[in-house]
Amino acid sequence: MSEEKQKVITFKVPEELEDAMKGIPNRSEFIRNAIVSALDHVCPLCKGTGILQPNQQKHWAQFTRDHAVEQCNECKAIHLVCKCNPENDLHS
Q1: Is residue 52 within 8 Å of 61, Cβ to Cβ?
Q2: pLDDT one-digit tens code per residue, 14-23
Q3: DSSP state of 11
Q4: Helices H, strands E: what count in the chain?
Q5: What are the CA-CA distances from residue 91 to residues 80, 82, 87 (Å)?
Q6: Does the predicted TM-score (pTM) go above 0.70?
């Protein structure tokens, strides 16, 4: 089995974060796992930037004609709801 080539990436952290990580035995592995986990939860539209580009805004405007962003009354999660079928709820 061939080993995947690894690259070294460095970045700066505040002293408080460095102090908080001192007890972690394998910081590289911890950071890799944290990044992979974060990437699994990135917004599929903005890719984590928090900004939609003009063409994305047009698509979003079209999408929201039939959909809404709402807060679930039961679990309080923000989610998308199809206005055509409002009963299509996770907790129903």
Answers
A1: no
A2: 999 999 999 9
A3: -
A4: 3, 2
A5: 14, 15, 10
A6: no
